[in-house]
Each structure stands twice: as structure tokens, then as C-alpha cells.
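re the bet — no i am not wrong, look at it urself. input seq straight from the record:
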Amino acid sequence: MRWLEHGDREGFGHVRSRVYRGGGAVGIDENLLREDSDGLVIVHPEGGIVGAATVLDMTYSRHGHPHRNAGIAAVGVLPEWRGRGAGTALMNGLLDRLREREFEIATLFPFRDRWYARFGFVTHGVRYEIKAESSRLPMAPSDLELRELGRGNWHEIAPVLEAWAHRYDGINRRTPDQWWRVLGGDTPLAVYGAGDPLEAYAVVRLVGDFWVPQEIKEFLWTSERGYRALLGLFRGLAMNKSHVVWPEPADSPYLSEHFDRPVEVKLIGPAMYRLVNEVDHEHARVATRAWLGDPARCGNIEQF
């Protein structure tokens, strides 16, 4: 197990292709690792690179204070090497490398919680997905002006995220490159805000077809009137769609104040966490649960 080296790109890209792209090609000039990321590979002496993972340098806010967080993504083993211990070696080696670089906590969104629990990770937090027809959304008047923001206006959005980092645990103080990815990367998303300065914002990939769901990627607010203003926006977005779908934290204002049947609400997969310095996996689970505290305090917004 080692950090990615200069000559590893082809093998690293091959794992990404087979595990996450259905065999689709990785472009010769494609940037597989951005400035906040590093790659890890596991090498078999006879098979070359058989597995890989990506680590993002992030923060985890706890009671408003930042802690260095390793965001683990794109963990994968080539199909022909599965069931032979490569995945176990990959995760154990990854945790060793994170200790070397002095990360405090590691975060991932699992494909199967029980498998990652073997390595000391615990599932934590509550995150709802709300799916409602436009007619079920409240007429929520607000005196705040609604406006569309360009992606370059992330500096205007960032204070809302910072306020969430003081209200909820688990929020990453994003770098400019991380904001770029969250706001759509090479295919920019629409960003709508309420108020000046902003009291709420929503990140949306607009859907052109009629009678299909309209998904809200991210929705954050700092005031009740900001929240209501964005609900009014959602009602407009859903007018010619089947539903609008958006995420909310455990203390969802919609469920407590605006719920109107039939509206679908489901718990969507929260992240898993692990304190890095705990070497023993069982001790890590116990210590991590205690350190994380109340699951309802965890914001659990998409970080990667």
C-alpha cells in the first residue's frame, strides 16, 4: 500500500474505470486528482495495481471548531482480485497512511455500512429526503428578494455554510476547488439565494423535461424567512414537474411546520466516520461514537 507515484496513473485510472465507470475510458489528459486530493494504490507483486482509493483533505466541524478530516472516496478493487483480501489490505493500509499524515478523523459514504464497520467506522447522523408535489408545498411568503447567483459568487454563499458549521457538526469549510466541484464542476449548477446578505441558498441542476422530478442538490438557511423564501422557489420550480426533491437535517422545519400529506419522506444514507488515531477497530468504533455525540447535531450534507 502506498501513496500514488508518478508511474501509477495508468493502473490508478484502470481501477477507476472498472469500478466506477463500467469500463469507460479514462482520458489521457483527464485530471483524476484535484489539488486537495491524493491517491493511494495497493500493489500485488504479480498483478500490479489491484486496488485504489482517493483521499480529500477536508475539515470536520465539531461544536464550531475545525478538525482535519480525510474524505475517503473512490475505494475500489479490480473485479478479478475481489474476495482475496485486497479490499481488507486496502482499508488497513489506508488508515495507516492517514495516521502518517496526521488526519484526525476519516469520513466516507459507504456502499455497504457493515463492511466498513469492520474497520472501525460508525454510521452517524440523520438526513431526510423530502419529495413533494408542487401543490403540497406551502404558499410561504417572505419579504426577502430571490435571485440567481453565478458560480463565482461562492464567497457570498460561504457565510451561510459557516453558520451551519456552528449549528451542526460535520460541515467541511470548503476550499475554492471544493466549492467549484459542489457547484457543478465543468457543468455548472444553478444557485439561488434569498436576501442580501444571503439568509438561504439552494444549489439546483435544472431539469428541462416536464413531469419528472426536480432535485435540489443542496439547501441551507440561517433564518426562518430565508427558509420560507426558498420553499416558494421550490414551488415555482416544481410547477411543471412531477415532484421537487430536497434534503433536510434531523430538525427539519418542513416536517414540523409545513408537512401536508401525501408527501414522501425517507432517511437517506448518512456518512460513516472513524477517529484515525485509534488503531484497534473495535476501540475505534466505541471512541468514535463517543466523540461524535448526538446524531441529530450532524449536518450530513454532501461533501465530495
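see?? The radius of gyration is 21 Å. told u. also Residues 2-125+270-297 form a domain with the Aminopeptidase fold (CATH 3.40.630.30). so pay up
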